[in-house]
Design a protein that fits this description.
There is one protein chain. With 293 residues, this protein is of the alpha+beta class. The chain has a domain of 118 residues: Glutathione S-transferase Yfyf (Class Pi), Chain A, domain 2 (Up-down Bundle), CATH 1.20.1050. The chain contains 11 helices and 4 strands, in the order βαβαββααααααααα. A 4-stranded mixed beta sheet has the order 2-1-3-4, with helices on one face. Helix 1 packs parallel to helix 3, helix 5 packs across helix 8 and helix 6 packs across helix 8. 34% of the residues are buried.
């Protein structure tokens, strides 16, 4: 083993008495609940989304933009920025919407009583069923789509919280951890590559919420956009995943969905909040900066 700290022996009882270090040390804690009082804003549309342009957030904004593109006007929404680096997810209003303090969270105010929905897969299923779109009704096709949707829910934590954390964010490199999660990440890519070698989309011939859920994570990975790990993982080998990634990424609704609540990258790719379709033309970060100049 190389470049390791001295061996660690866990105590009999773990205690939270020091920062864990790494990129997210300031917001990590072993307890739930709010840290401060802060109500959530409410816009004029039926659907209120509170999120950030991370892979999990992009899943939902892509679906909402796809629903609108397909003519489902009831899917009009307000997307409010939740800055997880600043701890917005621990505000009392957000915690009341999602007790787990993770983005995204949705409030559907179209009925007599507001309905809260949290966890990205739950939001995707809720919206797909609400509008009867992007989730097959045929039992076999529906089962396939849901199986792949929940595949990514179980797999992505190994990619993000496992490989991504130890390769890119941990305060020091741990060979065992990086090897362990690199192996699993490449295995997952091989699963997708084999599947997409026999099927145009993840769940079959049709584009579904399974594609929308997997694309932000594994599409970004095979394009070398996350963790600066493209060469390390030799992502160019997964040619079927790259084909599918490019096909999904070319969709206009996907391009719009990827911009919503985004706060990194080129200013022209950032729409911090989305309240009207016209915001893409008038309120992206580059246009706001130009207006102030």
């Amino acid at each position: 083993m190389t470049d390791q700290k001295e061996a660690y022996t866990p105590p009999a009882i773990w205690a939270w008495n020091k920062e864990s270090g790494g990129r997210f040390a300031a917001i990590n804690r072993p307890i739930a609940g709010p840290t401060h009082d802060k109500e959530l804003p409410i816009g004029r549309h039926p659907l209120q989304l509170y999120s950030l342009g991370t892979p999990n957030g992009v899943k939902v904004t892509v679906l909402l933009e796809e629903l609108l593109a397909a003519g489902h006007t009831g899917a009009e929404y307000d997307a409010w920025l939740i800055n997880i680096g600043a701890g917005d997810q621990f505000g009392s209003g957000f915690v009341s919407l999602n007790p787990n303090s993770k983005i995204p969270a949705l409030c559907d105010r179209s009925g007599p009583e507001p309905i809260r929905v949290f966890e990205s897969a739950a939001i995707l299923v809720y919206l797909a069923e609400k509008f009867g779109a992007f989730l097959p009704t045929d039992p076999a096709k529906r089962a396939e789509a849901l199986s792949w949707l929940f595949w990514v829910q179980g797999s992505a934590p190994y990619l993000g919280g496992g490989f991504g954390h130890f390769y890119a964010y941990a305060p020091f490199k741990i060979e065992y951890a990086i090897d362990r999660f690199a192996m699993e990440t490449k295995r997952q890519l091989d699963v997708l590559n084999r599947r997409l070698g026999e099927s145009e989309y993840i769940a079959g011939a049709d584009y579904t919420i399974a594609d929308m859920a997997i694309w932000p994570w594994y599409g970004a990975l095979v394009k070398g956009l996350v963790y600066e790990a493209g060469e390390f993982l030799q992502v160019h080998e997964y040619t079927n995943v790259i084909r599918w990634t490019d096909q999904i990424g070319a969709r206009p609704a996907v391009k719009r969905g990827r911009m919503v609540n985004r706060v990194s990258g080129e200013p022209s790719s950032q729409l911090h909040e989305r309240h009207e379709a016209s915001d893409f033309d008038t309120k992206t970060a580059d246009k706001i900066a130009a207006a102030k100049a």
